[in-house]
Amino acid sequence: MSKLFKVFLAVLAVVIAVLGAMGGYETSRRVKYPVAYSDLIIKYAGENDLDPCLVMAVIKAESNFVPEAHSGFAGGLMQLTQETAEWNANDMNYTADYDYMDPETNIMFGCHYLRHLIDMYGNTDTALAAYNGGMGNVASWLSDSDCSDDGVTLKYIPFPETRSYVDKVNANWENYKNIEPEEIIE
After folding, report:
1. Residues 6+ apart with CB under 8 A from 54
2. Consecutive H or E run containing 75
3. Residue 71 carries which DSSP code?
4. Are 20 and 47 in the same domain?
5. Same domain, residue pair 134 and 149
């Protein structure tokens, strides 16, 4: 084997390794941060003046994009309860029959509810804490000087699950912001 051919093989091996690593990284990212229902997410995020990447981050944290997911009394992509779905239907004057587990209805109601919480609290992290931990808990935390200095921003979330949830959604949000727009469109 000539020296030039050996160099060629070495360069080829490096190129194949780099391409394989890039492909593996891309596959890993797509598995870790799936994108599904993007048309519905973009539609209802837009109607509610939400960043679609935030909605994806919530869905990732809530159900990992599994539409049949259940946790306690909550279900669907955005893990709504029947009570929350009914509140949304009333608040939106939505009179049609609905199945809140249906992906489109779940995303529509979930986006509406998330927008309501952001408007109510004026702070995305506080809204996320309410989405997970409940508005009653957030109200008590905001009035507790150990949890909030200003009654608007939470400096400490007493529930470890809710604290972790807010961190997880924010980490997911950052990751979804780094996905190329053409990868989001299904």
Report:
1. 45, 114, 124, 169, 173, 176
2. strand 74-75
3. E
4. no
5. yes
- Domain count of the fold of the chain: 2
The residues pairing with 70 across neighbouring beta strands, listed in sequence order, are 75
How far apart, in whole angstroms, are the C-alpha atoms of residue 185 and residue 166? 26
State the Cα–Cα distance between residues 138 and 128, nearest whole angstrom.
10
Give 138-169 pLDDT, tens digit per residue: 999 999 999 999 999 999 999 999 999 999 99
Q: Which two tokens stand for residue 165?
A: 């949830």
| Residues 12 and 71 placed together within one structural domain of the fold | no
Burial of 156 by CB count in 10 Å (0-12 exposed, 13-18 middle, 19+ buried)?
Answer: exposed
List the catalytic residues. 62
112 is written with which tokens? Answer: 């509406």
Q: State whether 1 and 79 are in the same domain.
A: no
- Residue bearing tokens 């029959």: 97
pTM for the model stands at 0.81
